[in-house]
Design brief:
- The structure holds 2 protein chains of 2 kinds.
- Chain A is mostly beta strands.
- In chain A, 0% of the residues lie in helices and 53% in strands.
- Chain A has strands at 3-5, 10-14, 19-21, 24-26, 32-39, 46-52, 60-61, 64-69, 74-79, 88-96, 103-105, 109-114.
- In chain A, strands 2, 5, 6, 10, 11 and 12 form a 6-stranded mixed β-sheet that branches. Chain A has a 4-stranded antiparallel β-sheet with strand order 3-9-8-7, with no helix packed on it. Chain A has a two-stranded antiparallel ribbon with strand order 1-4.
- In chain A, a hairpin with a 2-residue loop joins β7 (60-61) and β8.
- Chain A is globular.
- In chain B, 0% of the residues lie in helices and 53% in strands.
- Chain B has strands spanning 5-7, 10-13, 19-24, 31-38, 42-50, 53-56, 65-71, 74-79, 88-95, 106-107, 111-115.
- Classes of the chains: A mainly beta, B mainly beta.
- Chain A binds chain B through residues 33, 35, 37, 42-45, 47, 50, 52, 91, 93, 95-103, 105, 107-108, and chain B through 33, 37, 42-43, 45, 48, 50, 55-56, 89, 91, 93, 97-99, 103-107, 109-110, 112.
């Protein structure tokens, strides 16, 4: 089975600074998708960014970007110009391409933003 | 388009009572997932459906849990009888077939269950 590992249970960052959250995954597949979800205290799961494995270019969404290292099976999330509203739990997730495939989530990283 | 809709948002029930959680996936989505989230175990996949058919229910804790999807726009997760250890946030989520861009999973707001 695929596994997703987030080795940082907690991280903190000063407001306006940059922080990187780590994620590694294990797979033998070539067609797959990677995601970062944000879960604020409200518990709503919000998609932050996604990456298709076949794309070499790293995905970017405003202040959020990823560093996708396919050979290393690494998928880190960089948050630039951190804001207080970025404080949340962040989950990395993996999904194999094709039909009948579930999502695999990491254990999450709790991000604190210090004013 | 409306997102995934779950009800109830919050429920407090007594041990031994039956609990039914409801979910309306995003229209047109082929996949529906039920997840449970607790502090101790994190996010756990309980079961998922593809075109209303249960594909993998290996995450269902025990026989007290059951899930149905009678049609493409409705699913239920039932716990009978409920126990305090079932207290958690239950998420329903849906997605299209994971090809191309149709691969993102969209979550509902969750149903907060407390069993006393």
């Amino acid at each position: 089975a695929q596994t997703v590992t987030q080795s940082q249970p907690e991280m903190s960052v000063q407001e306006a600074e940059t922080v990187t959250l780590s994620c590694t995954y294990d797979t033998s597949e070539s067609d797959y998708y990677l995601f970062w979800y944000k879960q604020p205290p409200s518990r709503q799961m919000i998609l932050v960014i996604r990456q298709e494995a076949y794309k070499q270019q790293n995905a970017t969404e405003n202040r959020f970007s990823v560093n996708f290292q396919k050979a290393a099976k690494s998928f880190s999330l960089k948050i630039s110009d951190s804001q207080l509203g970025d404080a949340a739990m962040y989950f990395c997730a993996y999904r194999r391409g094709g039909t009948g495939n579930q999502f695999y989530f990491g254990t999450g990283t709790s991000l604190t933003v210090i004013p | 388009d409306a997102g995934v809709i779950q009800s109830p948002r919050h429920e407090v029930t007594e041990m031994g009572q039956e609990v039914t959680l409801r979910c309306k996936p995003i229209s047109g989505h082929d996949y529906l997932f039920w997840y449970r989230q607790t502090m101790m175990r994190g996010l756990e996949l309980l079961i998922y459906f593809n075109n209303n058919v249960p594909i993998d229910d290996s995450g269902m804790p025990e026989d007290r849990f059951s899930a149905k999807m009678p049609n493409a726009s409705f699913s239920t997760l039932k716990i009978q009888p409920s126990e305090p250890r079932d207290s958690a946030v239950y998420f329903c989520a849906s997605s299209l077939v994971p090809t191309g861009t149709g691969n993102t999973i969209y979550f509902g707001e969750g149903s907060w269950l407390t069993v006393v």
